[in-house]
């Protein structure tokens, strides 16, 4: 047995028999609202070595202590879902020990007030409507981790690895973004093509926006011609109770022909859950763009980020030469061309 689905059952604990299964990869406990007590592992148990995906969404009795016990018995976790764990106020300290964890969902954990040190392997984090969290530095540290991996091994963008992103409460585009506007599209000043390897994008969504599986499209234009497009599915079902910030990393292969500098513009537009629905920018309060360069100076900047992260809660952009732009373009209301 490699997958076990116990969603909606009255299970109260994970007995010792769970820890003996060495083939289980997916454990689904959605809506097990009586689950709290975790059975003790036997001394010769090796833990759930093979489990890579664990879903505890809607387990309303789960708290930091019980979650600590569960995580202590899982060694290979890559994806963890804790949505609507309404009694979870903080994450256990052993979360940082999960060096393979890449995806963490905390949507509607509305009592959550703090995030422990997260593992550097993490590149996707959502905590929609967790309004007590101070998320300003967390947002950028995730992208820093992803950029650092890119610098270490540029081939990861060719392996189909999903782009890093975070979707967290936030009231503004971080000041570290050299290019930002209160519109849903922006043209930036000419930037150098040399060593340009990607961008960090930021979108500010307004309180009251109903997400409901919208798809966000980022369309990149060079000299007015579309040259790239990226889409991110917003899988949250519900309405934002405060402003939220979406930040993600996008590796970008710049068009090599032409001049040394490139003139780029970016359009962000939402598509409804059904293809026939009209495209819209409603709910987008602003956007930001930060270019990322592959150079020795960036490596130094990452080292500085690591040291500052230990002493400060101020985020630092991983950018190239900073040249601010006050361009506030009019939104393009027409449907993008496919």
TrEMBL record:
Biased composition (Acidic residues): 328-338
Transmembrane segments: none
Disordered, as annotated region: 316-338
InterPro entries referenced in this protein's UniProt entry, alphabetically: LRR-SigEffector_domain (IPR050715), LRR_dom_sf (IPR032675)
Top-level taxon: Eukaryota
Protein name stated in the entry: Disease resistance protein (TIR-NBS-LRR class), putative
Naturally occurring in which organism (per UniProt): Medicago truncatula
